[in-house]
Amino acid sequence: xxxxxxxxxxxxxxxxxxxxxxxxxxxxxxxxxxxxxxxxxxxxxxxxxxxxxxxxxxxxxxxxxxxxxxxxxxxxxxxxxxxxxxxxxxxxxxxxxxxxxxxxxxxxxxxxxxxxxxxxxxxxxxxxxxxxxxxxxxxxxxxxxxxxxxxxxxxxxxxxxxxxxxxxxxxxxxxxxxxxxxxxxxxxxxxxxxxxxxxxxxxxxxxxxxxxxxxxxxxxxxxxxxxxxxxxxxxxxxxxxxxxxxxxxxxxxxxxxxxxxxxxxxxxxxxxxxxxxxxxxxxxxxxxxxxxxxxxxxxxxxxxxxxxxxxxxxxxxxxxxxxxxxxxxxxxxxxxxxxxxxxxxxxxxxxxxxxxxxxxxxxxxxxxxxxxxxxx
Amino acid sequence: xxxxxxxxxxxxxxxxxxxxxxxxxxxxxxxxxxxxxxxxxxxxxxxxxxxxxxxxxxxxxxxxxxxxxxxxxxxxxxxxxxxxxxxxxxxxxxxxxxxxxxxxxxxxxxxxxxxxxxxxxxxxxxxxxxxxxx
Lengths: 376, 134
Known about the structure:
The structure holds two protein chains of two kinds.
Chain A: H1 5-11, H2 16-31, E1 37-39, E2 42-45, H3 50-62, E3 71-74, H4 84-87, H5 91-106, E4 129-131, H6 134-144, H7 153-162, E5 164-166, E6 180-184, H8 190-201, E7 206-209, H9 216-229, E8 236-237, E9 253-256, E10 269-277, H10 279-292, E11 298-303, H11 305-310, H12 312-320, E12 324-327, E13 342-345, H13 348-358, E14 361-364, H14 367-374
Parallel strand pairs in A: 2-3, 2-4, 6-7, 6-9, 7-8, 10-11, 10-13, 11-12, 13-14
Antiparallel strand pairs in A: 1-5
Helix pairs in contact in A: 2-7, 3-5, 6-9, 8-9, 8-13, 9-13, 10-12, 10-14
Chain B: E1 2-9, E2 11-19, H1 26-29, E3 30-31, E4 36-37, E5 53-56, H2 65-75, E6 81-84, H3 89-97, E7 102-104, H4 110-113, E8 119-124, E9 128-133
Parallel strand pairs in B: 2-5, 5-6, 6-7
Antiparallel strand pairs in B: 1-7, 1-9, 2-8, 3-4, 8-9
Helix pairs in contact in B: 2-3
C-alpha cells in the first residue's frame, strides 16, 4: 500500500494509540489489497456492550490515549443508561458498561448509542465513512449512496482516530455492482423479504425490484434483515436507491414471493425498534395504539436518545398506553431480553439474532400486527 | 534458514514452533486461561501455545476471536509470535492490539519447512522475516 510521508510518520508516532491505530489500518489495507488510505467524513463504532468485549476489551479501551480526528458515533450499549434498573440490569453490568462509555467518550467519540446515526447527521452521496453497525452500513451505502465497508468495532475506532480508512471493497465504485437480480412480491413484508433473501444470497449485492414505492423506514428494515441473515454490505432497489441504474443488470434472477414462518409462540414481550425507530415510526406506533388501545402485554420500543429528546410529546403519549420507551440499547444487544420466553418483533434482523444471541424464541409480525397482539 | 514474509503486526519474537496444518479459530479452539489447544479436531490438540511461535495456514470463525487474543495477552498465555500463510482481519487486529508480532505470506510454505519444537525467530518491521534454526 502507498502511504504518504505523513502517514508513514504516524507508524512511528510517539503516541502508542495513534501508532497502533495506523498499524491496524495498514494491516487491513495490505490484507484486502487497498492501494491507499482515503479520508472519511465520520466513523461509527460498534462492539461497546460489556457483554461482547468483557474485561480485556474494557481495559484495552481505558488505556487508549488519543482524540478522534472526525465526527464519531457509537452503536447501542447493553442498557438504557437512565432506566437500566427498570430493564432488569444488575449493578455490576451497569458499572462496567459505564466505564466502557467513559473510556470511549474520553477519545472524543459522541456517545450517541444508536444503530441509526444517519438520523442524527445524514452523510452525503459519495462520502467515505468507516461505520461498523451492519444495518447502518447497508443504509449508508444503499439508501444514501455513501461508501463504507462493514468495519469491526476496532477498525472503525482506528479509522476514527486516524481520520482515514483503507480504500478497498465498497469504497470503489466497480465493487458496488449488483451480482444478482431479485423480484420481491408486492405483498411480502420488506423486513421478512430481507431476512429470506439474505439466507439465499449471502454476501452478494442484490438488485431488488419491489414493484412498488417503499419508505426509507421500509428500506431500513429490509437492509438490516439482509445484512443480518446474509452479510451483504449494500443492495440496490429499482427506482428507489441512487445507484441502481449505474451498472449492468446481472443475469441470475430469483423471486421472493412467499415466506414460511416457523412455529409460533405466545409473546411475553413485544419489542419494536431494530434498527432504532425514526420519528415517523413513533408516530405510526402512536396512531396504532390510538386505534387498538392500552397494551396488555409487555411492550418495549427502542430509539436513540436524540430522537427521544426531539419528540417528547409523542414519546409521552406512547407511554400513556402502557408501552415502555427505552433509548441507548435494543432487544438484540441488551441481556435484559433474556428473561423472556417469546419475543414478537417486526424486524427481520431481530428475528434472526434473538434466538442466537439472547437465547429466546422469536415470532414475526408487521408493526400493526405487533401492536394489535400487544393489546389482546 | 531465512524466509521473507509480509509484516502484519510489528515487533520481534523468538520461541519454539507449534505448527498446525489446519485453520484455527481463537474462539473455541484455544483455552485463553492456559494457552492449551482444546479443539479435539486440531492436529495440535493438547499442545500449549503460550510463549511459542504459533504457525498455521489461516483463521476461521467469530470476530470475538480478536478479544480472545487480548484476553490471552492479559493472562500471559498468548503466543510470542504468529506466522500464517494468509491472515485476515480478526487475527490481524487481535495481534496488533495485543502486541503479538504477526507475519504472513511467507515466500515459501513454512508448514512444510518447520516442525513442532524447531526454534523460530520473527522480525516484523518494514519487511517481515522468519528465521529457523535447524
